[in-house]
## 1
Amino acid sequence: MKILKCQLLCVLLVLSGCSTVKGWMSSATDPNAPASLVNFTETAKFTERWHANVGDAGANLLQVALTRDAVYAVSGKGSLVRLDRATGHTVWQAENKIVVTAGVGAGGGLVLIGSEKGEVFAFSEDGKLSWKQKLSSEVLGVPQVGEGIVVVRTGDGHIAGLRASDGKSLWVYERSTPALVVRSHAGVVIRRGLVYAGFAGGKLLAIKLADGSLVWENAVSQPRGNTELERISDITSNPIISDEQVCAIAFQGNLACFEAGQGSPLWNRDISSDKGLFISRKQLYVSDARGVVSALDKDTGSTIWKNEQLLLRDTSAVSVIYRFVVMGDYQGYIHALSREEGQFVARTKLDGGAIQTQAVEMDGGLLVLTRNGGVYSLSVH
């Protein structure tokens, strides 16, 4: 019964946009429905440059990958597509009869996806399968490449280093996890020979890319509460790095920043989010667990501005594109706020599929993926 109970709770806590979780989050934090969209005077405009469709994402949180001349995207059923970066035209399409749970990662001439069976597939940039490697459990984090090593995170909390040339296992970092965790698609960030990753229980750590050995570990957040559910304080998104500073945020926990090399604490704030962070220049941007979008001073954590008009709309992580702070929501709207003051300046609706992945800056505009499989290249001005 204990195992079944844990499995049931884990299912309820899947933070991939399912309606069960959205309802649970609403009842736990605010009994009201998602905020209605407010009227405002548009002072900017989204313009579509091109769009394509790669197929429904399914139950998992999939992402696009961007290289110098290509956009890569994948459907939940394994259809991997290369699109021309300038036009959106399909260059090639590779069909794989798998359930994709992580992707797309790109780097070092490889295009990478992961499956529910723990398989990592590495394709060359012309769409041919280079190698496949089986890991310990389903692949949830987008594979990353650095210095000839592919780094992959699996659902059991392991991080594996694979040789990029042939997929051979080089090292595995393992750690114990609490009895109850949030199933998330948090991956890793590679910077200057280190791999940064957040874990269940609010821990942020850095390991060596070369051999997987631990360099430092520190607490972003401490579990609190009387029940297992209340004590969940997991880092469910990627850390972010700017200059010599690395920051992470925990669901039902804190936002904290550390010195990147040694892990010395810099500052922390009591802010909860399952979405992630964005750093640009001197500011850090976050959409919290309730949909409040804030700009903070990245050196002190003090609030610069706050926008509360997207409450409970299941907003994506924010991105900064030029002078705009951009995020999507559960109804498929993409919103732009003023970077300086935080008020709405533009809005448009795409294909109606939820926008849950972070927009990517591309050629002075942005690249957006919907759960329906729509890939949109937009400008905003």
Note: The first helix runs from residue 2 to 12.
## 2
Amino acid sequence: MRELLLFRHAKSAWDDPTLLDHERDLAPRGRKAAPRMGRLIAAQGLVPDLVLCSTAKRAVRTWELAAAELPRPVEVKRLASLYLAPPSRLLRIVRRQPDAVHRLLVVGHDPGLHRLALALVGEEDAHVRNSGLIEKFPTAALARIALPVEHWSEVGPGAGRLLAFYKPRALD
């Protein structure tokens, strides 16, 4: 059994139009939401074995703030290939992870994370429909997906089951 956590970066700042998209930092709302999600990860016992994080400043900062709330350090790999990655690339990256990793967390971007989550869990399940995942994947949201496979290489569309979909505003 594998578990995939898809974590969208927290709300980013748009106040400096001269910055490249990759260099945008978090907005105040994002700086508040990221540690809140870290506390949720810790409280729910969801500390991952490995984190794959986009190199975008807002994604890196989201994980740094969330990770500061965890009970132990976690190995993090920053991958430029995660920046604005489509679901097909995200899936290829997930499939290449070592089998020693049982719980993988990916910090990335919309719409790729949203589309990957829906491809993995489908839209027919009542839990998926009731979670709000079909409508949108808000900033700093976290999808928890169970994957009943022995190897990451076996992950594919329809392979997962949504265990939970956490939205920071719902935690207030």
Note: Residues 28-43 form the longest helix (16 residues).
